Protein: mannose-1-phosphate guanylyltransferase
Organism: Pseudorhizobium banfieldiae
Amino acid sequence: MTQKIIPVIMAGGRGTRLWPLSRASAPKQFIQFVGDRTLYQATLTRLADPTLYEPPIIVTNEDFRFLVAEQAREAGVRLAGTLLEPVARNTAAAIAAAAALTLDRHGPDALMQVLASDHEIVADQLYFDAIRSARDAAIAGRLATFGITPTEPATGYGYIEAGESLGGGAYAVRRFVEKPPLEEAERMLAAGGFYWNSGIFMFTAGKLTEEMEAHAPEVAEAAREAVANAVTDLDFIRLDAAAFARSPDISIDYAVMEKTSNAAVVPSSFTWSDLGSWDSVWKLGTRDEAGNMVSGNATLMDTRDSLVMSRTSHLAVQGLEKVVVIASEDAVYVGRLEQSQNVGRMVKTLAADKATSPLTETHPTSYRPWGGYTSILNGDRFQVKRLFVSPGKKLSLQKHHHRSEHWICVKGTAEVTVGDEVKMVRENESVYIPQGEVHRLANPGKILLEMIEVQTGSYLGEDDIIRIVDEFGRG
């Protein structure tokens, strides 16, 4: 039997390059851009072949722990474990910790494929051919990386120059090139032998650990101690904070790949994008005859080669070319498509202003282990939310010191606890939760439960929650 691969998915990034849909607390890997799956769920689906892959290990952080678990459940994918980073330390420490866990569980010969949770990849025959070439290189003792055949002189990617052939579709790495200016990128494409650095890797747990100890011993030691002293919490593995924090904040490329003599690159022609800007979303998306990619509520007239997406109001776009218009629940971004890689500058400007900084941090929709909520309206001493509770889930038994709540059921059937009373609340029925009263909301049904919640009181912050009983272990 061919040795199976243990995927390690990096899912802790906090990106705002696809603002306003992605925010620091709601990054792009957990967002549905098109279709009915998030990028993270699409990544999980690519790893679903049980003849090729073991269940994946996820590396993320405290804030996203329930999100990775719930979206995996929705995708029908079982996880082998979820490592929680106590602090951000870049990819070297995260990958070293995953290797230490894999080494403990499966031994030094266990094959690992490290991949991002937020890349768009077409998993066709070209993709799986590259996977098998990288696997063979890893079994032979190489640290393999996937080099994407460039389709344009992109300046937003790093490059890898291939050296001599190692056989089986792999080549020795001659050098890594940082993100180049346009002239340098054009020169490399004309010369040939240069590939985009995809950030996807394949190696054995033992070989990666050996190379890490040789080239980045502080990272290796911190990761080893963090795993050895980790604490299991529900389905999560909490890495030891003191040990993990001692790791240098460096990437796997800088820590190992640029220093080792065992690096290999597998030239790959499958469709790939890191979706680092709105123009990359447009390039990969399905476009109409006018070159427009449209998602959500929108009507276009005399408009060409544009990206228009709405999560809320109906957008009417007329007489424009090569623009990007993105509407989230609380913000709209409009810009030139070819300049969309600079959206980060706009985000920095917004973040510097106290009045607009929340737009870069939090999203109107927040996800919880039981479902989530969307903020609809905020006013003086009141706010309105849409709650959605997954089938079979329930919120914590809780109370509030400063607010009362009115719940109206708009979809499904709710089981509501108020004090000592438990009752069923059906569509078009409502219930009142007095200030200070112990209460709980649960979904005993088979479909998503939706409630409209109206809060009134002197303080409406999320920290005014006193949890009495919580099945998710939250205080």
